[in-house]
Please model this.
Amino acid sequence: MALHRLFHLSSLLRSAVSVTLRRNIGLSAVVFNKARDLDPVQKLFLDKIREYNAKSKTAGGVFEAGPAYQKNLTEEMTKLQRLYGGGDLTKFPQFKFPGEFETLKSC
Model:
């Protein structure tokens, strides 16, 4: 009986150590990959995205957007306002449900 418990405890300890080692190896692999230099193509891609992001922030919108883009944007916004009843399409709509919440509060 005692030998059976010892084997059972040994099995539990072995599985706990196994799980811990797998987690640590998985974590260290992620850390190692982040610390390692990127592939040159990935690095170039990320650098271009960061550069475009910085230029877009300084431009206050879409970077290198010409008059044709602005014309197309205003035409599409006008079309959407006509289709969906106007309003400011650059903001998230506010939904109001009068009476619905009072019914739920009384429950």
User: Anything to note?
Assistant: Residues 56 and 62 are 6 Å apart (CA to CA). The mean pLDDT is 77. DSSP finds four helices and no strands in the chain. The helical segments are 2-35, 40-59, 67-84, 100-106.
